[in-house]
Protein: Large ribosomal subunit protein bL21
Organism: Nocardioides immobilis
Amino acid sequence: MYAIVRAGAKQQKVVVGDVIEIDKVSTAVGDTLTLPVVMAVDGESVTTTGLGEAAVTVEVLGATKGPKIVIQKYKNKTGYKKRQGHRQKYTQVKVTDIKL
């Protein structure tokens, strides 16, 4: 059994026991969160409607960071150049339960 959950602006496929990274949330390590379910698959049955009560429970493991991204802008013959960096912050969570 697996589920597709919405975490922030992204959707991810999860199974019980998976460790995934979601957008940063301000929750202490060891606390639990519930993520809304978009779709659930149990063997041959696929459920996409009536998932108002369905939820995936996750346990917060800690904070992580994504890869460093370098943004460079350059315009020829004008002397314009700009360099900027970005590193996305994530929260690492472990899926503990899928409830339909």
The chain has no helices and seven strands. The mean pLDDT is 93. The beta strands are 2-7, 10-14, 19-23, 32-42, 45-47, 55-75, 80-99. The two ends are 11 Å apart (CA to CA).
